[in-house]
Every structure is written in structure tokens, then in C-alpha cells.
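pinging the channel bc i need a second pair of eyes. not urgent but kinda urgent?? the chain im working w is below, pasted from the shared doc
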Amino acid sequence: MKRPRFRRPRDRQELSILVGAIVILALIWIFATLAGEVMEGDTRQFDEWVLGALRQRADPGQLRGPTWLASGAQDLTALGSPTVLGLTVLAVTGYLFLHGLYRNGMFIFVASVGGWVLNWLLKAVFARSRPDIVPHLREVMSSSFPSGHALTSAAVYLTLGALLMRIAEGRLAKYYCIAIAMLLTFLVGSSRVFLGVHYPTDVVAGWLIGMSWALLCWVVERTLERRAGLKREKEQVEKQGSGDT
């Protein structure tokens, strides 16, 4: 007896949702462990060593390496600024709405706004001071933990990457979309350490929470899509049953 074909995609979707939920719990556990270490001061030696290693010993206000490295870090960090991310989210959301893709547009908008709210709440809870071991190469105002640029860029770019993966055709194109999203997230977060405005653990914490939030939004969206698919499937079965009687 042949297994009904319509069950296979549903089983794969359920498995992907389950795996996503497990990964979210793992990322949150790692973040909680890291946050505990940070608040107890156990990571301070490592944080200060990394920041010091990136600066010239004779002049801590200068980065080691080529002269263009500082300006490059300034340019890259702008990709994670609220202005650039906000404009990107509004542009993508508007484009999706114009093409009638309202659910996808709301998915991007809610995931992005939720990332900013989550960042604000966590900064208020931990209230970690900014690094003072090296001069800042960029003006900053808020607290340090977690890195807002790392968190929100992960939430926005990874969400966009997940959406593009669904649209793209071919496995290589799908991998390309998520790889670019991960690269942008990595570069934005790393630039904050180079500029001396965040400890490395701030950035790692931002990545963990940003990835968790983006993955959570993806799991919720896939769950809603699955329910909608089951509803359509049930309606089709009922129509077929009423047609046979």
C-alpha cells in the first residue's frame, strides 16, 4: 500500500519546526550562560585583551593594520544602524505589500520591530557600561550589553535571508541568500569591536539573541503556514466528500 504523498512534505515541515525550536532553546541557554559570566565579571580579562590586541601599543587610539581599516569599520557598522536597517525594512515591506504579499511583508516588519524592542529591553535589564580600555572611534550613547547593532542586524538580515531562500530557485541560490545575510551580520557585529564601542561578549550576545529571535519568527511563520495548509487540505477533502454523495 502506497503512502499518501501529501504526508511527506507535512512531515518534513513538522521536523524543521521541531529542529528550529530546539536550536532556539540552545541559543537562549548559551546566551543565559554568557550573560551570567559577564555580570559576574568572569569575561572581563578576555574582553579587554581582545580590545587591546586590536590597537597599536604606542597609540591605543589607532587600530593595528592598514590605515583604511578604521574607515572600513565605520562604513560596515553603518549597515547595522537604526537608520539603514529601518529604511531597508520599510523598503522591503512596501515592495511586498505592492505585490500583494501582505503576510510576508508583515512577517518582515514584525520580526524587525520586535528585534528593536527586544534590544531596548535587554539593554535596560543589564545596563553594562561601555568599554573604557581604548578610545571609542565612534560616538555611542546607550549601554553595552548586548550589542544593539549585532542583535538588530541579525534579526533583520537573517529574516530577509530566510525570506529570500523561500523565493530563490535552486539550492545554490538559497545557500547564497542565507550566506550573504550571515556575512552582513558578522561584519556589522565585528565592526563594533574594532571601533572599541563594544566588548566581544556584547557582540556574541547580540548575535545569539538576534539569531534566536529571527529563528523564532521563522518557526511561528512556518507554523501558521502549516495550519493554513492543513485548513485548505481539509476543505478540499470536504468538497470531494460532498461531491461524491
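so Confidence is low (pLDDT under 50) at residues 1-7. and The chain has eight helices and no strands. — does that match what u expected or am i reading it wrong
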